[in-house]
Amino acid sequence: MDRTRSRTGAVVGSLTALALALTGLFTGGAGSANADSTDAGTRAVPKHAVTGYWQNFDNGAQVQKLADVQDEYDIVAVAFADATATQGEITFNLDSAGLGGYTVDEFKADIKAKQAAGKSVIISVGGEKGAVAVNDSASANAFADSTYKLMREYGFDGVDIDLENGLNSTYMTQALKSLAAKAGSGLVLTMAPQTIDMQSPSNEYFKTALAVKDILTVVNMQYYNSGSMLGCDGKVYSQGTVDFLTGLACIQLENGLAPPQVGIGVPASSRAAGGGYASPDVVNSALDCLAKGTGCGSFKPSRTYPGIRGAMAWSTNWDATAGSAWSTSVGAHVHGLP
């Protein structure tokens, strides 16, 4: 995530290289079952949910207190945790000055109020400039211990993994399993990988998601800032289209993630990302295509996924800047899915 404006992702320069990496992907495999249920702990997370990132900084989008976050958001990811000098360890520093004097006590009270309204509030780790590294057992333990400490201190319901500068599946899995053991079945665990990270189940991010499937709430991949990508049918699709959203979601749905563990992550406005903005109508059509087989573009999945979790926006602040048009439209649509 570029805190000056938006999330940033890897621009794909060679689809040929991707195609080589994806050899054998589209035939499915042992992980291609599509159960509509999961054992993931989902405290306060409805069957169909909307996730939104709340900015703990002022980058030109409308500044919000947590209490100002639109009611349509079921999961609010606080962006972001900060790295410490200890590898793997995280902390959180509220930007009180940048947020108009917002105090820690007010922030904590707002978390409780959101939870009382049936929402989940989680701490997001990473972003485009995030420097958190979990590359060995010691850093995995430090990550789990410090994340759990923040959950207890602020009342966070869980954690969002948004590491855009590399991820080690072995040790991130260790860290998340350890955190789940501490937090219990109520843990809300989300991920926001870039498109390149989820093109194949052999990629480290995808491997992590599959390894923690028993505790995973939802993967809201960033369907933007990536350029054209391959869909699950091996064809190239342009970002910002229904086919891009459905074709890339299909890769996850046909390679091990259950429908409730897949969400569509998009910019809340055209100003929120460098590329790949998809209008609410496009997002809603993609959700209908995946859930009901209607509203599809040229690509139509071979099956429907009525349990699809929903959608994610970067960010609640950019949404507010644009008059909350995204959450008003997509929020109502997600909550109306079968």
Write the layout of secondary structure elements.
Layout: H1 15-21, E1 49-55, E2 75-79, E3 82-83, E4 90-91, H2 104-116, E5 120-127, H3 137-154, E6 158-163, H4 169-183, E7 188-191, H5 204-211, E8 218-222, E9 229-230, E10 236-237, H6 242-253, E11 262-267, H7 280-292, E12 310-314, H8 316-321, H9 325-335
EC number: 3.2.1.14
Protein name: chitinase
Keywords: Glycosidase, Hydrolase, Signal
Give an overview in words.
By secondary structure, the chain is an alpha/beta fold. It is built from 9 helices and 12 strands. It has one domain: Glycosidases (TIM Barrel, Alpha-Beta Barrel). The radius of gyration is 18 Å and the shape is globular. It is an enzyme of class 3 (hydrolase). Belongs to the glycosyl hydrolase 18 family. It comes from Streptomyces formicae. It holds the Pfam family Glyco_hydro_18.
